[in-house]
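Minutes, project huddle
Topic: does the predicted pose make sense with 5'-deoxyadenosine bound?
PN asked that the exact inputs be recorded in the minutes so nobody has to dig through chat later. Recorded below.
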Amino acid sequence: MSDLLSQKLYLASDLTDGEFAILIESDSFDEELRRLADLVRRSYYGTDVYVRGLIEISNYCRNDCYYCGIRRGNHFVERYRLTRGEILDCCRIGYELGYRTFVIQGGEDTFYSDEMICEIVSAIRELYVDCAITLSLGERSYRSYKSFFDSGANRYLLRHETADSEHYVKLHPPEMSLDNRKRCLFDLKRIGYQVGSGFMVGSPYQTTQNIIADLRFLQELQPAMVGIGSFISHHQTPFSNFRSGDLKLTLRLISILRLLFPYSLIPATTALGTIDPVGRELGILAGANVVMPNLSPVNVRKKYELYDNKICTGEEAAECRHCLTRRIASIGFNIVTNIGNVKEMKDKCS
Ligand code: 5AD
Ligand code: FES
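Predicted holo structure (tokens), as shared on screen:
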């Protein structure tokens, strides 16, 4: 039965809610899903894996999400901010290592005014004309997003976290809302960004129906990138006692996402690498085609701990670059020095 369902998903890039529920809840056909996802990925991207250099510019955050280690209520975190010069240093090192996309990520830090972000983006744009600039700075106004875009940013990552409003309330404090999150995502698309969204797998209280709502929301949004990773508990959050998300379910969902969105960019996330020593490799084999190694200065890495035991907090940028090249090669794929834009339907190679 599920075998037919994987075939149907492969051919139609869609299923009914009931069919999705069967696929999500059963592990019997993971191999078939993986095989088909791999086929689809190869037809769009071959064995290429894109890299994005992640620069974590600040761990200050005005939000208090119950799952996140750098939530404002966590008073044990030693807070930091990178200066414009430090951010540009990271880009220089990254460029030399072959990165052609920089992801500027941070907590929702009100210290950075729109003007400051625009200045940083313009400076990177001027120095690296052949690179994509991705921002991941949380919820802002249409005006702010537009000014960043006009300064040279091309992409924006903002996970919706969960598309079910009742579930959203269980993960976030009352001042946050799913409606605003969605508003941000559609604003970003309207402005012209390549948008990345996504959700955590196995977050507290998550049900199969919630996951189906996530897939439906993504179908509506049609993002260029979909990032998912297992929820991993952080010992200084209200969710410290919850179990982490399941690796197998996360991998199954990566395959399902590949079949739903054949053209999309899907990262094998750091969270996957944290719950399993070869989690990122398994993510690539399940259909992912992007990795996002850390480019932040080593002295701040441990401070950007969204969840416990996050990997790569002690390694230099070059070490991560070489480690990942080796890991990706070991499974028959190859990291490319390329801006790594999303392919459109018409770009399918075969
Ligand atoms: N476990 C896994 N992922 C997390 N994130 C935040 N906290 C956790 C956690 N405890 C994810 C969120 C956020 C992204 C930057 O990291 O999905 O959007
Ligand atoms: Fe960072 Fe392997 S990718 S140490």
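Observations noted during the meeting:
- Residues 2-344 form a domain with the TIM Barrel fold (CATH 3.20.20.70).
- The chain has one domain: 2-344.
No decisions taken; revisit at the next huddle.
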